[in-house]
């Protein structure tokens, strides 16, 4: 007797005598609704000049899009902090009317704390943003590429790929025709795109003296007047002509309007000398502007109130570049009401950027500096305690989210990791899903950070708790990534029951991707462990999973261009040598 109950998603076939609850059948042939995305972030205030670069970008709009079957690509390249993203966003907002098909935006995290974004993950997000249901996003990257190109063919869209690591990361994200325009920013020269992809490279230089002074005047105008031009020029020179450094220095000056600019310059000169002594390495060259940038960071950091300075460096331990107030409060071990004004202090100092939805973000250079400060000023035990507190908050927050999103599929979290204060509570599916949407990238990096820090018990639990959410959202890429981390972490922790849970988790992830051989190996590994432990319930779960594999294999492995061929599991259980 077969029964299907509760919420069920069927990709290919359902066999059941009795059906209850909600049964959703998704067919690959369904039409994808036309969605016009508008994903551009806000631009920087007091945008200055860049007339040459803007004119070159404008010229791309005048080109005949029908002249070529290749993608139109503009690559903005330059050193960190030179304002590539600000330039791209400023132009993109002004050019929106030329792209009635909408705008897609992705931060490729080429130089961020976390690993660079995988092209298949970005493609998965783009497909969903264009209206493809998560259940219909192909598991294989090549299929995602072809579907993406099919959806954008003929549409005039602007695709902004920010902070790319290299050309290979960008190529899979390019449309197949010239109807759309792709704007890429990177510290890399992207020679491969220029040489083989016919991309137009636009180098973004540091500001000349006049533009640097203009930016300083504009950003201090509300607080300071009458600063001598010679002093402004000297300050601009000490910032290396880098807009990020100039904005931080300007905020520092604006915050002390009664102090002559000459005194502030002398302070910065002292910090520059101090920084040179601390970092001098005659054996290595420095990236353009690095010393100037770091000197400005040091100058600004040392001027912070003690509470803001401590929060700034502790935030260098956060797993990602972007976060909300509750996570920052958990990391600091303080009530959110006490942390909010401190975050605003860091925002005013341009050490953090404010994002929609009450979120905050580091520029990757500033985050690297924060991480450096916390290593210097906090001992190892304190750093471990802070990171553990942050990871515990994420673990219990995602547990609350899984209970709201998937109450019947959730894994009941044990008490191995005590719940911290101020863990979020969700009043239903919508609020929990909004939280998951904002924190989804951080949940992956938190899992990886826990494993890297040796917090193996937290690492595998983070991944297993996420399973219920991922299963309902078909978040293939994040699920597979965290599941693989979990298996290794559980083994390292020595918790055999945890290893079985982690293998079951990975087996279900691979089953969803139709990687049936891998899924079978993982479930057999889990079953072997559970037999040895005498876990009757776990044995039943593993046996049921293997039964589903056996009964569904014929239907789900028929020749289908959208389905990948099964492959062997790359994470093999030491206990899976014998078949049960």
Q: Care to describe what's here?
A:
- With 580 residues, the chain is an alpha/beta fold.
- The protein contains 22 helices and 12 strands.
- It has helices at residues 51-62, 84-94, 119-129, 141-152, 167-170, 191-197, 209-220, 229-238, 243-254, 261-279, 290-302, 306-315, 325-332, 336-348, 364-377, 380-405, 429-452, 456-473, 476-493, 496-512, 516-533, 536-556; strands at 3-4, 7-10, 18-19, 22-25, 72-77, 103-107, 158-164, 181-186, 200-203, 322-324, 353-355, 359-361.
- The strands form 4 sheets. A 5-stranded parallel beta sheet has the order 6-7-8-5-9, with helices on both faces. A 3-stranded antiparallel beta sheet has the order 10-12-11, with helices on both faces. Strands 1-3 form a two-stranded parallel sheet.
- Strand 7 (158-164), helix 5 (167-170) and strand 8 (181-186) form a beta-alpha-beta unit.
- Helix 10 (261-279) crosses helix 11 (290-302), helix 13 runs antiparallel to helix 16 and helix 17 (429-452) packs across helix 19 (476-493).
- The longest helix has 26 residues, at 380-405.
- It starts with a strand and ends in a 24-residue tail after the last helix.
- The model is unreliable at 1-30, 280-286 and 559-580 (pLDDT under 50).
């Amino acid at each position: 007797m077969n029964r299907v109950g509760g919420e069920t998603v069927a990709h290919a076939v359902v066999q059941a005598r009795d059906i209850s609850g909600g049964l959703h059948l998704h067919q690959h042939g369904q039409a994808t609704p036309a969605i016009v995305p508008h994903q551009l972030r806000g631009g920087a205030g007091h945008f200055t000049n860049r007339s040459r670069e803007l004119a070159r970008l404008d010229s791309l709009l005048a080109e005949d899009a029908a002249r070529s079957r290749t993608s139109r690509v503009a690559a903005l390249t330059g050193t960190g902090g030179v304002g590539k993203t600000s330039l791209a966003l400023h132009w993109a907002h002004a050019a929106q009317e030329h792209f009635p098909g909408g705008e897609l935006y992705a931060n490729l995290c080429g130089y961020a704390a976390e690993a660079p974004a995988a092209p298949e993950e970005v493609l998965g997000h783009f497909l969903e943003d264009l209206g493809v249901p998560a259940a219909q996003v192909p598991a294989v990257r090549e299929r995602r590429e072809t579907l993406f190109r099919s959806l954008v063919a003929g549409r005039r869209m602007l695709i902004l790929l920010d902070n790319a690591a290299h050309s290979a990361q960008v190529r899979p994200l390019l449309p197949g025709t010239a109807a759309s325009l792709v704007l890429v920013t990177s510290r890399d020269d992207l020679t491969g795109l220029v040489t083989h992809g016919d991309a137009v490279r636009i180098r973004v230089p540091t500001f000349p003296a006049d533009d640097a002074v203009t930016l300083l005047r504009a950003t201090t105008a509300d607080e300071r007047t009458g600063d001598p031009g010679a002093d402004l020029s000297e300050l601009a020179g000490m910032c290396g002509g880098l807009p990020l450094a100039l904005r931080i220095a300007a905020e520092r000056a604006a915050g002390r309007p009664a102090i002559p600019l000459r005194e502030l310059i002398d302070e910065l000169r002292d910090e520059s000398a101090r920084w040179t002594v601390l970092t001098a390495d005659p054996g290595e060259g420095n990236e353009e502007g690095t010393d100037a940038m770091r000197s400005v960071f040091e100058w600004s950091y040392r001027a912070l109130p003690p509470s803001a300075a401590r929060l700034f460096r502790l935030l260098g331990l956060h797993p990602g570049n972007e976060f909300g107030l509750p996570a920052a409060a958990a990391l600091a071990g303080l009530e959110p009401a006490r942390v909010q004004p401190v975050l605003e202090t860091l925002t005013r100092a341009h050490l953090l950027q404010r994002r929609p939805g009450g979120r905050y973000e580091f520029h990757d250079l500033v985050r690297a500096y924060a991480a450096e400060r916390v290593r210097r000023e906090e001992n190892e035990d304190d750093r471990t305690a802070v990171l553990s507190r942050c990871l515990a908050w994420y673990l219990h927050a995602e547990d609350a989210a899984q209970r709201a999103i998937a109450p019947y599929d959730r894994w009941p979290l044990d008490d191995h990791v005590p719940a911290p204060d101020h863990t979020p509570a969700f009043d239903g599916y919508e609020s929990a899903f909004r939280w998951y949407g904002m924190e989804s990238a951080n949940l992956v990096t938190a899992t990886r950070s826990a494993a890297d820090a040796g917090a193996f018990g937290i690492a595998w639990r983070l991944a297993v708790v996420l399973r219920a959410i991922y299963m309902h959202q078909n978040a293939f890429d994040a699920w597979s990534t965290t599941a693989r981390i979990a298996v290794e972490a559980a083994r390292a922790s020595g918790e055999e029951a945890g290893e079985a849970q982690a293998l079951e988790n990975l087996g279900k992830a691979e089953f969803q991707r139709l990687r049936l051989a891998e899924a079978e190996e993982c479930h057999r590994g889990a079953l072997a462990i559970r037999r040895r432990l005498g876990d009757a319930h776990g044995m039943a779960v593993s046996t049921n999973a293997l039964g589903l594999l056996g009964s569904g294999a014929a239907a789900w492995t028929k020749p289908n261009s959208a389905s990948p061929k099964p492959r062997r599991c790359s994470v093999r259980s030491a206990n899976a040598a014998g078949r049960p």
